[in-house]
Amino acid sequence: MVLNLKGLGKIEIGLLDYLLIFVPVAVYLELTHGSGTYIFAASAISIIPLAAIMGKATEHLTEKLGPGLGGFLNATFGNAAELIIAIIAIKEGMFSVVKASITGSIIGNILLVLGLSFLAGGLKQKSLKFNATAANLNSTMLILSTSGLVVPAVIHSLLKNQSITNAAIDGLNNTISLAIAIVLFTTYVFSLVFSLKSHKHLYGAADEEAEGHKGAEGWSTGKSLSVLLAATVGISFMSEFLVKSLESATKSLGMNEVFVGVIVVALVGNAAEHSTAIFMALKNKMDVSVSIAIGSSSQVAMFLAPIMVFLSYFIGPAPMDLSFTALETLSIVFSVLLVNFISADGQTHWMEGVQLLALYVILGIAYFFIY
Amino acid sequence: MVLNLKGLGKIEIGLLDYLLIFVPVAVYLELTHGSGTYIFAASAISIIPLAAIMGKATEHLTEKLGPGLGGFLNATFGNAAELIIAIIAIKEGMFSVVKASITGSIIGNILLVLGLSFLAGGLKQKSLKFNATAANLNSTMLILSTSGLVVPAVIHSLLKNQSITNAAIDGLNNTISLAIAIVLFTTYVFSLVFSLKSHKHLYGAADEEAEGHKGAEGWSTGKSLSVLLAATVGISFMSEFLVKSLESATKSLGMNEVFVGVIVVALVGNAAEHSTAIFMALKNKMDVSVSIAIGSSSQVAMFLAPIMVFLSYFIGPAPMDLSFTALETLSIVFSVLLVNFISADGQTHWMEGVQLLALYVILGIAYFFIY
Amino acid sequence: MVLNLKGLGKIEIGLLDYLLIFVPVAVYLELTHGSGTYIFAASAISIIPLAAIMGKATEHLTEKLGPGLGGFLNATFGNAAELIIAIIAIKEGMFSVVKASITGSIIGNILLVLGLSFLAGGLKQKSLKFNATAANLNSTMLILSTSGLVVPAVIHSLLKNQSITNAAIDGLNNTISLAIAIVLFTTYVFSLVFSLKSHKHLYGAADEEAEGHKGAEGWSTGKSLSVLLAATVGISFMSEFLVKSLESATKSLGMNEVFVGVIVVALVGNAAEHSTAIFMALKNKMDVSVSIAIGSSSQVAMFLAPIMVFLSYFIGPAPMDLSFTALETLSIVFSVLLVNFISADGQTHWMEGVQLLALYVILGIAYFFIY
Q: 3-state DSSP call for residue C131?
């Protein structure tokens, strides 16, 4: 992302660009059948600059196409890296990794991104203010959408206590998850109508700010599309390497798949949004930071998660359900409650950042030991 | 209810009145030993206009008797349909249906009624405002009263893990539920003192509005009492038919009792309040809608639920406890948290309505498959 | 504590001073091998005036030493009674009593102290106002710190379902609890920097008020230290008697250890703060009451609980973990959510006090029957 930060922006971009060197490194390691851990590390790192480039291209495209189609594009390609990783993992039937990355995206955005944003902004300014109305809009949307995600987990735990066969439980789980995915996705379509048509004035201020950092030089639609295509191909390959090396890497590092999904995969897949949110916080544009962090979490719950369920019917070895683990469910509930309380008053400071990060570390410890 | 809606109100009343035809239909089907499903449907529908008539009579009576006795009457007869259905079900020992209807009343008022009210009001006006102070008063009351309801479920699940006999567990459950019912009921009595005596000015605005729709022509106390008596008798019979046909109806429709209790019985028993709340929303009197929806839920938790426990000692085959299922407990917790977040800022729009309804549909799906 | 309440203050101190008679009573009973129940009662009562004296000495010391060192002293000795009781219990390996007293301190402060404060203040004045910003600061801190306490319980329940040995489960529990204790304690250190250095202006108003009740006559540092030492020695002995007689007392009274820990030990250990909060409410200084009640709860979660885990490694027969029971976990979650909703609007009345007390009674009933 091009940031007008008097040199700092350019250094940042430079650093991200250098990371592209890991693309050929990952390819070389894969072709020479190198160690799974190194392939995992190289492909994970290489997705970060690719996701940033894809984000930049999408933003230029959105500028040209206007808010209607642009909003849809943004929602789709803004999460493209996550979606591509998920598609590869669904193909391989690694559903627990897919669900862990959904959880990780939700709590990572709320706890890690918002925490770092509050800390970064709070170290520069004593008191940080943001638009409480817009933040409440987003965080109420979030609490409603995540409650949809929590229901299948509850149902799953109740089903296990009933005297029916495992096959019957799996069937019911899938039926319920599909039904809930349809409800969540329909709600998401309504929310697009709400934010892009009927109530777009409520989102106006944040959009305007966000547009400010896109840089003056617009790209042509052709250039944007070519870059988008190239980045998509790059991410696809790197994700394939990432997912395939995940098992051997986690084993040799002594970590479990859920931890890797919640912490590592979610971090990599959301790297572009993360850096934007934190840079906006450093520029004291807390509205944009809060809107990116909370908005991305809602989008994962109402758009990405249902899409992944639908896709599993076409490309997966079996349908994927939405029954998260107890720890995942609780992580989501806690994080969502927290962000609602914190965003209610429209002001924050560095200590709230420390506390959000503390909870992220605590949950990270939990995922490290539990699977 | 007579609504001064320039014709619309009279049409509404007319439609409800036509539904009275289902009273003789239900009686006929019962006498001719008709299909349980049809008896269930006919008696369920016939309760709706009867509850509306009872509501009208209670309101006229409240006007005559003043806020003190009137408030008590309103609380009792405003929920009379629910109470009568519950009494019949308690007599039959159908405790899971009784508890399901308590859950259904709480979440139905918060999710369905408030959701429809926000949607109906929001489609007419871009932004809906209501008195945040009054709404917070009600919703804090709700969170406190429902936490009382949640404790017995937790205790029940803990007791199951202890090495004591089932009879001992049942005994403890009943003791704890009775103790909690007494605490909740005592709190309810204090809340009547609070809202009718010490702090009635806080409820003033909403009351004034609510009185506005009662119509100019007051009924005499005699007329009100006769109508009240007639409606009570009608509802009693219809409820008896409803409860007795419930088992065969649910079987032939492939539904479970808890789903019917949470969704169908709760809908029927609360039909009168539901229609009032939505009509008030259409007239942009959101204060009244919010107060009816949240207030009714509190009343169910603090007044109806304890009364049902007390009654079970006198008319039931055994004492009823308050240990709800895990899904019921979670539904209540989620719905109550939601309404607190939504009502905090005193403004809403159609999208919040869509989201509340989405959660209602998601929970409905869960209850349909789980029992 | 010396309260300028026109006579009332002196009566209060007088009453507390009379309770010191229970110190020799407890010693006499212990030496003559008296009944455990009487020793328990006498030592419990005797801790109340000792804790009040210790609180007074700490406050005088804080005045002399300034906010930096003073703040740390206040945090340590303000909870000294609780800490001493916990140390004795940890030595004896009575971990469930220690954890129960942590739970009891958190919910006791939020439900009992805040409930009594709202009730006491609300009976004198119709509407009570307090600084919503300061209250939100404290209650957000509380929600974040208690979520750290809840995670180990979730992990513990998940571990029980895994096919590993009990010894391995205990080991993991201890590792995770220690890691989380370190995170919580680090966060606490940051919060001291926040409240005593970087953002002390936010806490200014409440401090000023709180200082108002310290009385005009300052003590010399020497006198404060001597009194502090004497009270510490007194509490240490009384706590030893309390903890050692706890088992036989609970048995003969038919109560379980967790109930005694949550209700009795927590009440005794916090008696000093409790009385201050309620007296401040009577003087309509709700800011101080709310700050004491919510602040003490945060301190227990972020400071006392981690310290107890650390101490168990040095003085306990085994390391103590932080996995609370399901009922404890839920009590904390509910109480913390409640206080967040109630403190959000910065105003209250007697009915909210009644409701908080009602929840305290309901939870008390639960603890009485469940263990």
A: coil
